[in-house]
């Protein structure tokens, strides 16, 4: 494989991962819309997305493995491919989160509507925003933007904690609303996990981008230094 | 690096992963013991384990990356190292699960003891057993044993679903027990996730072991075939 063909393959891999990210983000948005308007037909769409996401995860994993096996890439390219493998796994779990939320919506079907002390659409939009920003950081190889995702996670965590306290309080004081409160609590927890996956993705972006600078640090082992002298690739800019 | 030194490094990597697995398994057992006897001093041990697990996760990741960068291993060795990277991430999340459970124990400290319709120690022992078996399959490169872990996951899933139904019922009918029931439900969910991680590990073992056979299949691309002719390593036996 020529260097040019190799770089085209890396671009294809990146392209596939972006499709995967789009599917995962859309799945979360659909799941929250299904929750908001209680529409089971949207839940069906989420289930179908999840299957597509699982298929694409395997495809990306295989493409990454093939590149590692055929090309034995060095330094920045190696780190890029490893980051893709990790981000891929996190996106698949974002899809799982969407599926969990839509499963909750199905169980809500026969419950009365309750006014609960929690703003799930807002929490969902924060979590989705983190996924989007982490992927943006990946596209632009921007470690600073990835860093900003890490701080957003605190906001989602504290929303989740607050929701947990207020919904547990509803359960303890208004028994008849316990099923709805429990459902809302589980949805919050799924969203908090989506935010965790966005955080993992951001950390992987930092790991990958920082790899471009690692050879400038004094701590690099002499043995490794040689393999880190590969030219910085196009996709790292 | 000579071939012998390379194999020694692979063994070191495997050894580190087994230490990681031991820590993760111990963390789950301690968290459940803390839950069972409501002992906050055990929760402190779990928190300390979690920090050790996180440190070791980074160390293993770096060692795996160094091996990939320095050795550009092929075929079975490449798949082995990738499996280590993935299993490592799952073990770290098992540690997170233990931490979540011990956080629950802390919130239980001021709650009255309640007799709940759920057997958490049994569910914990099933989930731990899955982690142990998945690691055993890894040590012995035994795809069949890994396959048996996958079927155990169904048992944990159905225990979790049953616990969810019965605990939600407690919440809806005995308001004063809602806090305890909610805590138990969250612990079940954490255990169900531990079982999911054991399942992921088992799948990674299958992926790695099956790699040893991939060249016997007709579907291998001619380009890849060369790189798959590396001798099957000692650690794959």
Automatic annotation (TrEMBL), chains A, B:
UniProt domain PhoU: residue ranges: 19-105, 120-205
Keyword Lipid metabolism attributed: no
Main location: cytoplasm
Keywords: Cytoplasm, Phosphate transport, Transport
InterPro entries linked: PhoU, PhoU-like_sf, PhoU_dom
Signal peptide stretch: none
Keyword Hydrolase (UniProt): no
Top-level lineage group: Bacteria
Cellular compartments annotated: Cytoplasm
Subunit-level organization: Homodimer.
Family: Belongs to the PhoU family.
Described function: Plays a role in the regulation of phosphate uptake.
Protein name (Swiss-Prot/TrEMBL): Phosphate-specific transport system accessory protein PhoU
Organism: Acidicapsa dinghuensis
Gene transcribed to yield this protein: phoU
């Amino acid at each position: 494989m020529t260097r040019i063909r190799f770089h085209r393959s890396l671009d294809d891999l990146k392209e596939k991962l972006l499709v995967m990210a789009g599917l995962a983000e859309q799945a979360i948005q659909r799941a929250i819309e299904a929750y908001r308007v209680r529409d089971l037909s949207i839940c069906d769409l989420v289930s179908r997305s999840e299957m597509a996401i699982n298929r694409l995860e395997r495809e990306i994993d295989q493409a990454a493995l093939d590149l590692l096996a055929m090309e034995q890439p060095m330094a920045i390219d190696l780190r890029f491919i490893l980051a893709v493998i990790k981000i891929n796994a996190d996106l698949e779990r974002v899809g799982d989160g969407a599926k969990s939320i839509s499963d909750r919506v199905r169980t809500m079907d026969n419950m009365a509507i309750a006014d609960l002390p929690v703003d799930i659409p807002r929490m969902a939009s924060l979590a989705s925003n983190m996924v989007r920003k982490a992927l943006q950081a990946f596209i632009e190889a921007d470690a600073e933007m990835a860093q900003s995702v890490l701080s957003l996670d605190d906001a989602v965590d504290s929303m989740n904690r607050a929701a947990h306290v207020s919904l547990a309080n509803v359960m303890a004081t208004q028994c008849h609303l316990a099923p709805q409160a429990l459902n809302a609590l589980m949805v919050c927890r799924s969203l908090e996990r989506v935010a965790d996956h966005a955080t993992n993705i951001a950390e992987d972006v930092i790991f990958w981008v920082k790899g471009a600078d690692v050879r400038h640090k004094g701590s690099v082992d002499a043995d490794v230094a040689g393999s880190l002298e590969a030219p910085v690739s196009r996709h790292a800019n």
